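Input (structure):
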């Protein structure tokens, strides 16, 4: 079990390590951290699009249980024919993956650029 004393001890170590950096380096670290977290969220969104696409390919319709908003969205999608649903799902998947990969490419480029400077 992780105690509060161990947590505070580790936090004081992190503060000591963080004091070594200059202000510009601290800002770059925080910026890269925030951009990386956003990139991780985009990765999760991209992966989560596979389940509905596979469900559409296998069953032809979506039948998930969840919140009322999600159920209303599924009912709206089920009003269209199979080809339209399949096209929408694949197009959305491709768009999400293209945007995600472009973002991650520029994030990687930014990380390399800042590490050289």
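Output (sequence):
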């Amino acid at each position: 079990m992780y105690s509060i004393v161990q947590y505070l001890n580790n936090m004081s170590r992190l503060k000591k390590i963080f004091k070594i950096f200059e202000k510009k380096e601290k800002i770059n670290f925080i910026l890269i951290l925030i951009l990386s977290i956003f990139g991780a969220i985009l990765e999760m969104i991209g992966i989560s699009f596979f389940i509905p696409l596979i469900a559409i390919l296998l069953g032809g319709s979506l039948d998930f249980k969840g919140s009322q908003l999600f159920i209303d969205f599924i009912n709206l999608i089920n009003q269209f024919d199979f080809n339209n649903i399949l096209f929408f799902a694949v197009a959305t998947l491709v768009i999400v993956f293209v945007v995600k990969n472009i973002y991650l490419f520029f994030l990687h480029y930014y990380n390399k650029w800042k590490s050289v400077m």
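Notes: The chain has one domain: 22-116. The mean pLDDT is 78.
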